[in-house]
Known about the structure:
By secondary structure, the protein is α/β, with parallel strands linked by helices. It has two domains: 2-147, Rossmann fold (3-Layer(aba) Sandwich); 148-311 and 333-364, 2-Layer Sandwich (Dihydrodipicolinate Reductase, domain 2), CATH 3.30.360. Helices cover 36% and strands 24% of the residues. It has 13 helices and 15 strands. The protein has helices spanning 2-21, 38-41, 59-69, 80-87, 101-108, 125-138, 152-162, 181-184, 188-194, 204-207, 209-219, 318-326, 340-359; strands at residues 25-30, 49-55, 76-77, 91-94, 114-118, 142-145, 169-177, 227-233, 246-252, 257-263, 270-277, 280-284, 289-296, 300-307, 363-364. Helix 5 packs parallel to helix 6 (125-138). The longest helix has 20 residues, at 2-21. It is globular and about 65 Å long. The N and C termini lie far apart (71 Å). The model is unreliable at 1-21 (pLDDT under 50). Residues 156-282 form the GFO/IDH/MocA-like oxidoreductase domain. This is Gfo/Idh/MocA family protein. Residues 28-143 form the Gfo/Idh/MocA-like oxidoreductase N-terminal domain.
Amino acid sequence: MIKNHLVTIFIVMITTSFYAQQKQVGLGVVGLSHGHVGWILGREDFGDVALVGIVETDLELAKRLAKEYNFSMDLVFETIDEMVAAKNPEAIAAFGNIYEHLAVVEFCAPKGIHVMVEKPLAVSLDHAKKMEELARKHKIHLLTNYETSWYPSNVRAKEILTNGTIGELRKVIVRDGHRGPKNIGVNKEFLEWLTDPVLNGGGAIMDFGCYGANLLTWLHKGKKPNSVTAVTQQLQAENNPRVDDDATIILTYDESMAILQPSWNWPMGRKDMELYGTLGAVYADDRNQFRLRMAEGYDGFKEETFNLEERRSPFDDPFALFAAVILGELRLEPYDPYSLENNIISMEILDAAVQSAKKGETIYVK
Length: 366
């Protein structure tokens, strides 16, 4: 018993020593109005990221969240200049509206501060290109966080496509969305800019169309579509008077096509993807449930269902991944969903979709 007790103490000492020596990335948060900000405010301390400062001009919002997540108002600054001067963060996570992403990068890039924004990268292709130029000029990491990047089901789908199990890819269908921001009860600060065509760049077409654009660019290893055709509707004018709330986007590639269905009109929240090949299909039904269906005869098939385990760190958490990239412990694969090169192409797709919906015509991608 004494021996076992000593072994336990030894293990605890080694573990404690490891975390004490582990390099932490000092992270600043700019903006608190994004509904996803709880991911960092309520995150456990894993020893990889230290929240050093917050920028928020709405002090009532900051106080409300400070009470909810138990952080000190001493961390809160009214300007990014003040926070960076006082706290010297190595990285910034942007949790304000999408229009502000460009301003965050304009401030951070010349100072060598790495940036991660919530999806999508920007409100427009013009903003995205300016951000790309700054990131490359000043050699900072500029990542975009998509929840679907963490999904084991999406990773398995790409593995099966790559190894040829379902044959050559012919069609992709991606469906994302929920009942709408107001209907699901997002906070008022989030709702104000989500339904603003300037601050969000559009409605559902931007908010959820970006997921499909991002996944398609990843699946196609950076290959752009030949054409983009989009139709939008406003089915909840009382809730979303200034933006679309339903969209269908059709993309053509040389040997396949894709259909994206971003919507604020689904009866339930969803983020799912279907890949159809010449031999079979895969269904990433949600984060963990995955189905493989192989064709048999005319309309027969054999289907297997898998409940997948979560991915291993740092691929199960955006901040762990951000820290690993900054510290040089991880190098993203080409056109990874988080990567800048992926998200520039994703913005080209979204830009073409918005143009197509406005003009009522197909946009051919250069």
